[in-house]
Amino acid sequence: MYLLGLTGSIGMGKSTAAARFRHNDVPVFDADLAVHDLYAGTAVPHIERAFPGTTAAGRVDREKLSALLIAAPERFAELETIVHPLVRGLEAEFLHRHAQMGASLVVLEVPLLYETKFEALVDAVAVVSAPALLQAKRVLERPGMTAEKLDKLLSRQMPDAEKRRRADFIVDTGGTITNTEAQVDKLVALLRERPGQAFAKHWQ
Fold first, then answer.
1. Could you give the CA distance from residue 60 to residue 71 in angstroms, rounded to a whole number?
2. Which pLDDT belongs to residue 164?
3. Fewest beta carbons less than 10 Å away: which of 19, 81, 107, 192?
4. Residue 171: how many CA atoms within 13 Å on its side-chain side?
């Protein structure tokens, strides 16, 4: 089973690429969605203990937690020590389940892949990338997003140029969706029969 890490900065088109992998019957683990679920379940008591007052009604209040972290960005690392091991456990369950089902290619979508040194746990990394002006336009169209918030988000992420430099594959999402999908289709065809080593080495 070949493990492909999928990453890219905010607004670069990870969701579009991930959807196309799924269209090709490739299982995709969405780390952001996993965190969303953890914030309504397993992670709640741990986060309340570390960040009192940031949970209510059995779930994390993302606005309160975000406001606290914006005021004290040095505490991001503390949050990550809570959340990352929980996500890693869910990733392992996902991989073992699909290995048993005979999957030949699996995608792990991880926004902070390089920042968390996750590239060591997969066979290769695909980076989605688009011009900076297009990235900003996409992100600023999101509800509640401001230029200041975008700057703070980008300050926590590795620059796109460095991600592109490190990538094994680049999916250029600066053109049409059809063009992006065609690139993903080619990647699936290339990797589907390629033998992988990361699962046996790091996840067994």
1. 17
2. 97
3. 81
4. 33
- Does the structure show a pLDDT above 90 at 139? no
4 and 42: one domain? Answer: no
Check if the beta carbon of residue 166 is closer than 8 Å to that of residue 114. Answer: yes
pLDDT at 128 over 90: yes
Mean pLDDT, the chain, rounded, equals 94
Beta strand residue intervals within 8-149, DSSP E? 28-30, 55-56, 59-60, 105-109, 124-129
> Quick one: tokens of 155?
């300050």
Cα dihedral 188, 189, 193, 197, rounded to 10, equals -40
Q: Find out whether 18 and 62 touch, Cβ atoms under 8 Å.
A: no
**Is 84 a residue whose pLDDT tops 90?**
yes
pTM above 0.70, yes or no: yes
CATH number of the CATH domain containing 11? 3.40.50.300
Total number of domains in the chain: 2
Cα 185 to Cα 191: distance, rounded to the nearest angstrom: 10
Token pair 């996500």 in the structure block, residue: 87
Helix (H/G/I), strand (E/B), else coil: 170: strand
